[in-house]
Fold this sequence. Notes:
With 488 residues, the protein is of the alpha/beta class. It has 21 helices and 16 strands. The strands form five sheets. The protein has a five-stranded parallel sheet with strand order 2-1-3-4-5, sandwiched between helices. It has a five-stranded parallel sheet with strand order 9-10-13-8-14. A two-stranded parallel ribbon has the order 6-7. A hairpin with a 6-residue loop joins strand 11 (262-264) and strand 12. Helix 6 (147-160) packs parallel to helix 7. The relative contact order is 0.07. The structure holds adenosine-5'-triphosphate (ATP). Adenosine-5'-triphosphate is lined by residues 141-144, 170, 172-178, 241, 283, 323, 360-361, 364, 469. Residues 141-144, 170, 172-178, 241, 283, 323, 360-361, 364, 469 line the site of adenosine-5'-triphosphate. It comes from Fuerstiella marisgermanici.
Amino acid sequence: MPNVLVIDDDRSVCEMVRQALQKSDLTTSTAMTVQDGLAMLAADAPDVVLLDIMLPGASGLDVFRQIQEIDRKLPVVFITSGTDSGTAIKAMQLGGFDYVTKPLDLPALTDLVEQAIDTRRMMSTPVALSTNEESTADSETFVGRSAPMVEVFKSIGRVAAQNVPVLIRGESGTGKELVARAIYQNSDRSEESFMAVNCAALPDALLESELFGHEKGAFTGADKQRIGKFEACNGGTIFLDEIGDMSPLVQSKMLRLLQQQEFERVGGNKTIKTDVRIIAATNLDLDKMVEEGEFREDLFYRLNGLSIHLPPLRERSEDIAHLLEHYLNLWARQMRRSDIEGISPEALELLQKHSWPGNVRELQSVVRQSLLNATGPVIVPSFLPAELTGAKPAVEKSADARNDAGVRSNIAPFIEKRLNSGTSDLYAEALEQMEMYLITRVLEFADGNQTKAAELLGITRGKVRNRVRQFGISLDKKVTLDEQDSPS
Ligand SMILES: Nc1ncnc2c1ncn2[C@@H]1O[C@H](COP(=O)(O)OP(=O)(O)OP(=O)(O)O)[C@@H](O)[C@H]1O
């Protein structure tokens, strides 16, 4: 369970934060002095530190420097009062993760801590490029023995050491984030920060401010100055996921950044220099977008210094069995299903024939669902999700199969079944089922239009798209992004 260290001399702040983070399953330790905080840092190896910038008898910047000496990759979120934000901004420029102002907005703080934990994981969990050898306990295994994946591993080795932008291309769920992390971890910048921004998850104006920062008063709601990722990550590496979703304005700012390593904060006129390596990823056809004038050609060539193409899973079927084995072993252990022995030849055949539109992310979901359904030690066809048992490609699903999504997601019998099986992870399992049902149903209602579904759900289009991929959701109607593209 991730561990958060709060260093703040105000006992009530420590307690409030502890209670808020506990609700998100985060363990919190608290220290009220710098000495105690540094001692706990060494003893507990936290994943994130929340640091009050005005501790008695200590300069926040000095404490931050000491933390950086102990662990350069540890994300530090500063807690400031309205009057000391200047120091926080300085600390951000030195590589702090973010800062929050008192009185604390606890839900926003929890989100920020979760983002920081994710960043910590991406920076610190090594990606093992495993073709034969077993992965070690503290690494994530990048499984792949097919010829195209061996080529990908070689490319990672080649590009990592060169300080140029890299463009990673491939369908959703093919492992682009894993490639980005492997490049970072094997580069000369591996001791510096790594930050990830999903360009599709934020509306255009927020993305601009997230990347470049803004000055106080730059727009309605900009009540304080904000340091963007390009400034905070100076010397490090930024992973820009879903780069094809950038607005023309952000594209032109990005181009300047790549050409001159400089930019201005939104609403500011001071030119800021930065030295950031950019790794970008996309699942869209950028060449076509360039042709159609949707993506700047000059930016495309700049980003495309070196490019790595991740083949879809259906084009490397020999990896399917290895991936199934890998995730079955991993999750059977996690779900306390030590009785699981493997997959029957019939089930394996169905899985090999499947077209995997959601790639490895869909395969993960299938393994998880099969384990939930498994009443015996061998995964047989009847334990597989309904859309696989007919061995039809998901895009050709029949109305019956679609109805199955509803049946499968019927939450009451699901919960009863899991309670009887003695699960220890019911919260996550039930939420996943509910979310799968909700997104599928709303998309169905919206005729497959993701923009409309996002409006109905009150979440971003990027989030809808991520969930569609994560769960491998596919409706009879084509899932589209814009109303004008909706099938009639
Ligand atoms: N070859 C692989 N071996 C093991 N796990 C993999 C492999 N490829 C992908 N994964 C896992 O599949 C999931 C999806 O991968 P990842 O997020 O890197 O995909 P992506 O291409 O970035 O997707 P998206 O375009 O939707 O952001 C992750 O949990 C990742 O660890």
